[in-house]
Amino acid sequence: MMNSESESSSLREDRFELASILRTFQKQQQTLVLAALDDDNQNFTLVRMEGSRIRLLPHGGPLLTSPLTLVAEGSEAKIIFSITNMVIVEQQGQQQWLGELVPTFSYIQRRLNLRVPVPLREAFSIAIHLPGHVELHRFFVDNFSTGGIGLFSRGIPNLAFKQGAIFKKVDLNLGEYGQYKVNVEVISLAPLDEPLVDHPELTHRISMRFLNLSLITQRTFNKIAYTFEVNFNRKR
User: Fold this and answer.
1) Which of 94, 131, 162, 227 is 20–30 Å from 19 (CA)?
2) 111, 142, 157: which is the final residue of a domain?
3) 9 and 86 fall within a common domain
4) DSSP 8-state secondary structure symbol assigned to residue 157
5) Are 166 and 131 found together in one domain?
6) What is the pTM of this model?
7) Nearest to residue 146, comparing CAs of 229, 84, 51, 90?
8) What pLDDT, in 10s, does the model give residues 15-40?
9) Residue 48: how many CA atoms within 13 Å on its side-chain side?
10) Is the four-CA dihedral 144, 147, 150, 156 of positive or negative sign?
11) Beta 179-191 vs 148-154: how paired, if at all?
């Protein structure tokens, strides 16, 4: 079993939502360290939220900067946000920074995809039609996840299957687990480092990611991935 991460980003504009997210991150980690976007060595500890204001403890005594753009990371997401109208305040002998949250921020959601090896005996495959070609180009599934798929190629793939190439409404055949029309993008293509003893005809490996899956299909693929994990790996 393997896990792979992907991210989706959205721009939001709600100061109170931003403050709530920061409070949640702080509860998750107890001590929440924020990093300056433009300087990896400039860090701050979140002391507390005060309504739409934020109180920080700078590390190492940097010069007061305003506005300041920071990165905060939680267990399932990270945010990039800015603070303005910064002032220095004394608190129990410490010089802390106090500033106003800028309403606009980037919210970056991490999605953890279960990536499961699939036995070649199942002969799951993707079939892609290229213009001007009569026969379908078929690749055999090596591993599967909600985010994408690893495949084996029988011989050298057509030059059309290059990194960044996009193919729409291709046929994904998962046998008893269903047949689907999916859009895919080629992520990588390379010859195998070592031949497969039982399948010497499979010479190259190609990785693709799924594009624009509907929410229903994402949920279906997630269930299939966990089913594969149980049926193909835990029973070994």
Assistant:
1) 94
2) 111
3) yes
4) P
5) yes
6) 0.54
7) 229
8) 999 998 898 888 877 678 888 887 76
9) 3
10) positive
11) unpaired
